[in-house]
Design goal:
Chain lengths: 506, 313
């Protein structure tokens, strides 16, 4: 049943008018992705009223184009300006920006483009493979598993901040404290709001991210002067895009792991792309033979998060086809578009609205590939951004990203928060505190707290025993412990090896 | 030609509604405030009604999402606007009624809102897992421990309804809140971490049709589903008063003629083919009420919830 619908959808996309909507979606998605502060959710929220008059399938193509293209668009700014265009691209800055500084932006963009489209394709195939099991997958992740996943994510913070463990933990703790501002999800009590109404709903994510990454990075660039790539690379040729594409296939295990992590995290409602790409990055660092090379321009550090980021779109449709519930903020808006077209998402959505769902799947995948192709074609011009004087780049990025933050909800307070977070972010850059750990803790803290509270209520106060009785929870517990102890064990083992110089026979 | 027509329309309007409101509502667009984000239930109903209302009025209606602070920011924006009929809003009732009854500051007074129309209403039902041994409310109460229910937030209308309903039935509950949306609360029942959930019948029906859930009672006077008893049949007629309403209103002291004009347009829109088809596809229960009826429903609701003040605090 599924395959026929898939073929139909591919044929449909290929035919005239639909393709125009898809192409429009891709271009729009790229633009919204590239601009810090604007993302896929903003694009979809703004587009939603526009789709009202469209045929439902055309609306799907437009939405799918946007969803598939934003993540690659965001990686361009992440690599060239150390400013993630969308939140999930934050992990790409770790190794992408050092590459750009070394004049190898072409390599990084090539790798990002290729791993984005490959990740998108793998995510799609995983989705189609798992559609028959979709219900079981969704039902096996309850509050207990949510809690353990957030703990796994928080553990990864400690692993990913090699060399600056204490600073990473401090930033993470500050992030957790930010996460607890606002009304408690269970009791409704207000905490740390200081009498400010704005903080009732908590510290919103998009202004925080934009401030932390875009504004602070622009302050840093402005005060440093010059251009991103530096003066030493004056007459270097713009090459390496092809090599970047090739590097993805050379590191296919990294690509595969990133895509699988992305699909899995995408399938779990409420975690989203930022966590997916971050976990993909930290797991790649951790399993690599040479973890010290990351953060200095290792191409694998670009491949993993970008693959995860695009694969998560396929995964986030698993809860949608199983129960008609969204797996991500983007799919939530996509379901909103369906409702607007008189389609009520529910558990039988795949039965009655196969056309729309497969249309979206194909559109997202085609967009991931299409956006990468457009990106590759434009890359030689895009890379020139790193040569432009920051005196021109900085004001443009600051103005556009502050506007973007305002557009989302039309609240001036969001803009103010962005500026405040920008200043905090700049101080963190100056004093060498990792910003991503703060953001990851902010993203995870709320879910961690809420789901732990729920588990306590469900299990009548015996949360730990309750979790041990659930197989998926036990697996997650083991993975968390491994994440934590593996590096220590490896270090101890290395130390002993070098001391006694024993050669392990194979 | 256009000017000539407009002049004609103005002349006609002057005859019927008086000089002061002569050009209403043709000279500028009407802002329709949605106190939640795009894609939600309130957003959808507004965006579906807007074009139909436009047709009725011959004016432009522009939906605007002003979300935040549990839907009160949008209500405040409407309350502060000029009462000229160019700003109207949709309200979450009885969510706001309960908040106000409990003495919370919602930033405006529901009493002062110029009520225009009630667009839709939904009633509640209680459902358990599809293969659960629990077959009735009686079984649910005989678990020998507080019944675990799933809900989105402590202040949500369904959560408040659950607290009051089970108090009336006389069973203890533990309300486990914090789920992301009403669909998530129903999936929590399917996962088996909670015993039951109280949700709008239309939402539950999507899952009872696929046998993932089983409805054990509806909070209505008349039977809605075959073989499912109503709370009235079980001897709790008061419970049928609970429901969720989508109500349209405007700033305080709107001229009666403007309210009337808008109400007529909404009534026409509710009966239009586009809205009717949309409602039947999405299971939305349209239930139109004019200004007077809506106003009296609002005051009934405040006094109804006032009696449970102690229970909810």
């Amino acid at each position: 049943m599924g395959f026929d619908a898939l073929v139909d959808a591919v044929v449909q996309v290929g035919s005239g008018g639909s393709f125009l909507y898809l192409a429009a979606g891709i271009l729009l998605g790229l633009c919204f992705g590239v601009i810090p502060g604007l993302g896929g959710t903003t694009a979809l929220a703004l587009l939603m009223p526009v789709t009202f008059g469209m045929e439902s399938l055309d609306a799907m193509y437009l939405a799918g184009g946007v969803m598939g293209a934003t993540s690659f668009g965001g990686s361009i700014t992440a690599i060239l300006l150390n400013t993630p265009g969308t939140a999930p691209n934050a992990a790409t800055t770790f190794d992408g920006y050092p590459l750009a500084q070394q004049g190898k932006a072409g390599l990084a963009i090539g790798a990002a483009a290729c791993s984005s489209s490959m990740g998108g394709l793998i995510g799609l195939f995983t989705l189609i493979l798992f559609i028959p099991l979709a219900k079981e997958i969704v039902l096996s992740f309850g509050p207990a598993e949510f809690f353990l996943l957030t703990i796994l994510g928080l553990t990864a913070i400690a692993v990913s901040v090699r060399g600056k463990l204490l600073r990473g933990l401090i930033a993470g703790a500050v992030g957790l404290m930010f996460a607890f501002v606002g009304s408690d999800a269970i009791t409704g009590d207000l905490r740390f709001t200081g009498g400010i109404d704005y903080l009732w709903d908590g510290i919103p994510l998009v202004p925080t991210l934009t401030g932390m990454f875009a504004i602070s990075q622009m302050l840093e660039l402005a005060l440093k002067g010059g251009s991103v790539a530096g003066k030493s690379t004056g007459n270097m040729k713009i090459t390496g895009v092809g090599l970047g594409v090739l590097s993805v296939f050379q590191n296919w295990t990294v690509l595969l792991r990133g895509s699988i992590i992305g699909t899995l995290i995408g399938a779990i409602p409420g975690l989203g792309g930022t966590v997916a790409s971050f976990l993909a990055y930290s797991s790649t660092v951790q399993t690599d033979k040479d973890p010290e090379s990351y953060g200095k321009g290792n191409i694998r550090g670009v491949i993993a998060p970008e693959a995860a980021n695009n694969a998560k779109d396929g995964g986030s449709l698993i809860p949608t086809v199983a129960f008609g519930i969204p797996g991500s903020a983007e799919t939530a808006l996509f379901l909103g578009i369906l409702v607007l077209h008189g389609i009520d998402p529910g558990p039988s959505i795949l039965l009655y609205h196969e056309r729309e769902i497969y249309g979206l799947i194909v559109a997202i995948t085609a967009a991931a590939v299409g956006a990468s192709l457009v990106g590759l074609l434009l890359s030689r011009f895009l890379i020139l951004i790193t040569r432009i004087d920051v005196g021109i780049v900085v004001p443009v990025v600051i103005a556009v990203s502050l506007t973007g933050v305002y557009v989302l909800d039309g609240r001036m307070a969001d803009v103010l928060l962005t500026v405040i977070m920008g200043l905090i972010g700049y101080l963190m850059i100056r004093f060498d505190y990792p910003r991503l750990t703060l953001v990851i803790a902010l993203v995870l803290g709320e879910t961690a707290e809420r789901s732990f509270h729920q588990v306590q209520l469900i299990s009548d106060g015996h949360a730990f025993g309750f979790m041990l009785a659930r197989p998926v929870s036990v697996i997650l517990l083991v993975v968390t412990l491994l994440t934590f102890f593996l590096p220590i064990a490896r270090k101890l083992l290395d130390a002993r090896k070098s001391k006694t110089s024993v050669v392990v026979a194979r | 030609m256009k000017r000539f027509l407009a002049a004609g329309a103005i002349a006609l309007a002057t005859l019927t509604t008086g000089a002061a409101l002569a050009e209403y509502p043709t000279d500028k667009p009407i802002k329709f405030v949605i106190p939640y984000g795009t894609g939600g239930g309130f957003d959808t109903i507004v965006r579906t009604f807007a074009p139909a209302v436009e047709k009725e009025l011959g004016a432009t209606v522009v939906p605007e999402n002003i979300k935040g602070a549990s839907g009160t920011r949008g209500g405040q924006a409407v309350a502060r606007a000029d009462a000229d009929g160019y700003t109207i809003g949709i309200y979450n009732i009885p969510g706001l009624t309960v908040a106000e009854t409990l003495g919370r500051d919602i930033g405006f007074s529901l009493n002062e809102v110029s009520w225009i129309a009630n667009l839709a209403a939904s009633k509640y039902g209680i459902a358990v897992k599809g293969d659960s041994p629990i077959k009735s409310v009686e079984d649910l109460c005989k678990l020998g421990r507080p019944i675990k229910l799933s809900d989105t937030g402590k202040d949500s209308t369904s959560s408040i309804t659950a607290v009051i309903a089970f108090q009336m039935i006389g069973c203890d509950i533990t309300n486990i809140t914090g789920y992301g949306g009403s669909n998530d609360t129903m999936i929590a029942v399917m996962r088996g971490e909670v015993d039951a959930t109280l949700k709008p019948i239309t939402s539950l029906k999507k899952y009872t049709e696929t046998k993932d859930l089983r409805m054990i009672v509806t909070l209505t006077n008349e039977p809605v589903l075959e073989g499912v008893p109503t709370t009235t049949e079980l001897g709790y007629p008061e419970l049928a008063k609970f429901g969720l309403n989508r109500v349209v209103g405007g700033p305080p002291n709107m001229p009666a003629a403007v309210v009337e004009k808008l109400a007529t347009a909404f009534e026409g829109a509710a009966n239009s083919e586009a809205v009717q088809i949309w409602a039947s596809n999405t299971g939305t229960e349209l239930s139109f009420m004019g200004p007077e009826e809506t106003k009296s429903m609002m005051s009934d609701l405040s006094s109804f919830y006032l009696q449970f003040k102690n229970l909810l605090q």
